[in-house]
Write a structure and sequence with these properties.
This protein is of the alpha/beta class. It has a single domain, classed as Rossmann fold (3-Layer(aba) Sandwich), CATH 3.40.50. A seven-stranded parallel beta sheet has the order 3-2-1-4-5-6-7, with helices on both faces. The longest helix has 29 residues. The chain is globular and about 50 Å long. The termini are far apart. Bound molecules: NADP nicotinamide-adenine-dinucleotide phosphate. The site of NADP nicotinamide-adenine-dinucleotide phosphate has 29 residues, from helix 1 and helix 6.
């Protein structure tokens, strides 16, 4: 019997935070990697470290996913029939610190594109190959905010959860598992990049990336459409279904 080679995994937002952790855990499972983000130097650093530590291969693909050319480059890699990608992690994301009315429409549109359009376009590119092979895994990094009233970030993440629920229902019987991973506050660069004061969230609210990714990958392997890491955030999501919206808005986004 010949063992089949592990599927290649393409991860967006792999230069930092949850994306680097997805890359690390998938490399530890033996998957070759394609690492996508804007910062080439940081991608190369992550690739070199993971190749050395886990003996897998890691390609870097620098691309801005809010840019048509950047998105097209990643679509090109996902649709290359000679180098199939069996696992897609749509993870790249940023937050907006200010209120909706204080952001420019352009900032809001770029934010929406990154969280929704990029995931849609990359999923659309990856699916035909996965369906043709009768196997594939797609992880969409959403947020607990998908269930809460927290601005256009919540609205975008709610779209990603709804999209993942539908796609998992539609494609799971054909071998493709799609999961929205919905973490609460997680220690990464996310809030610093936004310029947000992290002390607005209590210490119990903070998660480690290692656990979010471990539970997310396990739920995806089981074919779950939605993964909410930790019991405390499962309770938050359950409460959000019944509690008045004004009680569920969470801490304000205060500048540092
Ligand atoms: N941290 C949290 O509390 C939390 C909670 C719930 C959900 N999430 C979600 O988790 C995901 C990962 O965030 P994180 O917490 O790991 O944040 P992070 O540490 O700031 O990492 C964000 C990653 O996205 C990449 N990225 C940003 N804009 C991009 C663009 N236009 N094109 C391509 N790549 C881009 C960044 O790399 P470059 O700068 O090199 O492009 C970086 O690799 C996001 O979707 C976020 O919404 C985070």
């Amino acid at each position: 019997m010949t063992a089949t080679a592990p599927d290649t995994a393409l991860i967006t937002g792999a230069s930092a935070g949850l994306g680097t952790e997805f890359a690390r855990q998938l490399a530890a499972q033996g998957h070759p990697l394609v690492l996508v983000a804007r910062n080439r130097a940081r991608l190369e650093e992550v690739a070199a470290e993971l190749e050395l530590r886990y003996g897998t291969t890691a390609e870097v693909l620098p691309a801005d996913l809010t840019d048509d050319g950047g998105l097209a480059a990643v679509v090109g890699r996902l649709t290359d029939p000679l180098r199939p990608v069996g696992i897609l992690v749509n993870n790249a994301g940023t937050g907006l610190l200010h209120r909706f009315e204080d952001n420019s429409a352009e900032e809001e549109v770029q934010h929406l594109r990154l969280h929704t359009e990029a995931a849609l376009v990359l999923t659309h590119a990856a699916l035909p190959g996965m369906l043709g092979r009768g196997a594939g895994r797609i992880v969409n990094v959403a947020s607990i905010a998908a269930f809460l009233p927290r601005g256009t970030y919540s609205a975008a993440k709610a779209w990603l959860v709804s999209f993942s629920r539908w796609a998992n229902l539609e494609y799971r019987s054909r071998g493709v598992r799609v999961t929205a991973v919905c973490p609460g506050f997680t220690h990464t660069e996310f809030h610093d990049r936004m310029g947000m004061d992290k002390s607005v969230a209590p210490s119990w609210a903070w998660l480690q990336a290692e656990r979010v990714v471990r539970e997310g990958l396990a739920d995806n392997a089981r074919g779950k459409a939605v993964s909410i890491p930790t019991r405390r955030y499962k309770v938050v999501a359950a409460l959000a279904r019944v509690a008045p919206a004004r009680l569920m808005a969470g801490p304000p986004r205060r500048p540092k």
